[in-house]
Write a structure and sequence with these properties.
With about 325 residues, the protein is an alpha/beta fold. It contains 14 helices and 13 strands.
Length: about 325
């Protein structure tokens, strides 16, 4: 028996479809609706007292996008808090984009041989007060810039370090984040500025950074803290990050939330979609919630985008995973 044909398109009355085709279309529509429902624009990402945030623009995979583009993505994802890398702000303030986004400069804050000195010169007279206008755009959209990531701060001049703290304050942040150093002298120097500004610095480590590494840095300033990356911690074979979280919660500026398999310092565990790895994401989020600790849960998107999906959809899934864990 031949399948029944259905005329479904009034614009093309000669188009016919079988019931089997209709079923496929219905399933596709369901997938599309499900994808759309992931995006929670207008909803709050502060769930039961815990702010779900995002490391931007890093998580979007395009470091050169503008502040307006970053904000539009955050609004689409329904996010109310971010860790913002400083580059887009400096371009907004008038820094030459070819210096800010020179190939190595994206990762190291302008560390190309000539770029670093030129950016340092620009920063001497930068109109930092104008960053309040950048902040207002985010505030008006309901997105708080809680942490400002300053790359390569240990290579900054004294004047540049003061500039970085002033910039972060003007943006409304409560902390600066930067990569942890292997040098005691560098931590002591940065700690002096953190004490001067009475402003928290969250040191970020990768898979080789364990609790002892951070505790050693804590001794250099009461304002040196930690941006605890629970995925890297597990992926490097450092055990569960939960004891670290419980012991040093007062020193934690924010968590980086990602899921990784257990690995070792020599062979790091893979990044995987949330819920497929060994990182205790739900437990960490619920401990913050239950203790009412003011720690942003900052998603740092790093796993490979699956075939048939896209980066924004996957980030939305990560946000939903965290929402569900905190509900």
């Amino acid at each position: 028996m031949r399948p029944t044909s259905l005329h479904l398109n009034p614009l093309h009355p000669m188009s016919t479809y079988t019931r089997r085709d209709f079923t496929k279309f219905a399933l596709a529509a369901g997938v599309l609706a499900s994808s759309r429902s992931l995006f929670a624009a207008g909803a709050s990402s502060k769930v039961n007292g815990v702010m779900i945030g995002l490391n931007v623009p890093y998580s979007f995979g395009t470091p050169t996008i503008t502040g307006d583009e970053i904000l539009a993505n955050c609004v689409k994802l329904g996010l109310n808090g971010v860790e913002l890398r400083a580059q887009s702000v400096e371009v907004f303030l008038g820094a030459p984009s070819e210096l800010v986004f020179a190939r190595p400069a994206v990762a190291t804050g302008g560390a190309t041989p000539g770029g670093a000195s030129k950016l340092a010169e620009w920063r001497k007279t930068a109109a930092v007060a104008k960053a309040a206008d950048y902040r207002k755009k985010f505030n008006d959209a309901g997105v708080a810039i809680e942490v400002v990531k300053v790359d390569n701060i240990f290579k900054f001049s004294d004047a540049e370090i003061d500039y970085a703290f002033t910039l972060a304050k003007t943006l409304g942040a409560r902390a600066i984040s930067t990569e942890i150093s292997k040098s005691d002298e560098e931590h002591k120097r940065l700690g002096t500025f953190a004490d001067k500004h009475k402003f928290l610095v969250g040191l970020h480590g990768h898979h080789t950074s364990n609790m002892e590494h951070f505790e050693h840095a804590f001794g250099d300033s009461k304002f040196l803290g930690v941006n605890l990356d629970i995925g890297h911690y597990v992926g490097g074979g450092n055990g569960s990050p939960i004891p670290f979280l419980k012991k040093h919660h007062a020193r934690i500026s924010h968590l980086h939330i990602k899921d990784r398999k257990i690995g070792t310092a020599a062979k790091v565990g893979d990044n995987v979609p949330f819920g497929e790895g060994d990182t205790p994401i739900k437990e960490a989020l619920q401990i913050i919630r239950d203790n009412k600790w003011p720690i942003q849960a900052t998603i740092e998107f790093e796993y490979k985008v699956p075939a048939g999906s896209d980066r924004m959809t996957e980030i939305a899934k990560c946000v939903k995973y965290c929402r569900d864990a905190l509900a």
